[in-house]
Amino acid sequence: MGTTIHLAVEELRGGSHLLLFPEGTRSHPLPIGTIRGSIALIAKQAHVPIQTILITADSPFLGKGWPFFRKPAMPIHYRIEIGRRFDPPTDVRRTIVELETYFHSALTGNPLPPNVASAAADELE
User: Fold this and answer.
1) pLDDT digits (tens, 9 = 90+) for 13-55
2) Helix or strand (DSSP H, E) at 9
3) Closest by alpha carbon to 46, among 22, 17, 84, 20?
4) Lesser CB count within 10 Å: N end or C end of the chain?
5) What CA–CA distance (Å, rounded) separates 110 from 102?
6) How far is CA 92 from CA 45, 77, 96, in A?
7) Can you give the three-state secondary structure of 34-101, one letter per residue?
8) Burial class of residue 5 in the structure, from the number of CB atoms within 10 Å of its CB (0-12 exposed, 13-18 middle, 19+ buried)
9) Is-contact 20 51, C-beta < 8 A?
10) In 76-99, which positions are buried (b, 16+ CB within 10 angstroms) versus exposed (e)?
11) Phi, psi dihedral angles at 84 (to 5 degrees)
12) Looking at the DSSP assignment, which residues form a beta bridge with residue 51?
């Protein structure tokens, strides 16, 4: 287990909260990119649930491809909502598939085809 993951696990075991962006970056392609395995690995090792939070905006400001010096149209409206809570993982690969499927469905209203979600989990093997 890497040092960063080890430190995160120790903090969670000590009662701290940890905010992770499961893609490791801003969403690309939209609505969500490939979820990295670290989120499920950390939760599994610490034996803690994963609480999802959905953050959406009516502007592409701060997204990938937004020019650094370009001023956005104002006002920008953000929406933050508590999403689904996942039990502490026992299977990292399965958890990644479940997270990708959940996020895609929650952000688009459409289910994610199983072969698309499982492709990301295959990268963990």
Assistant:
1) 999 998 887 666 655 666 777 888 888 999 999 999 999 998 8
2) helix 3-13
3) 17
4) C
5) 10
6) 10, 34, 6
7) CCCCHHHHHHHHHCCCEEEEEEEECCCCCCCCCCCCCCCCCCCCEEEEEEEEECCCCCHHHHHHHHHH
8) middle
9) no
10) eeeeeeeeeebeebeebbebbbbb
11) -70, 145
12) 85
Which residue carries 């370009």 as its tokens? 70
Pick the closest to residue 72 from 86, 82, 83, 57 (CA basis). Answer: 57
Q: How far apart are CA 41 and CA 97, in angstroms?
A: 13
- Give the type of residue at 56: T
pTM of the predicted protein model: 0.77
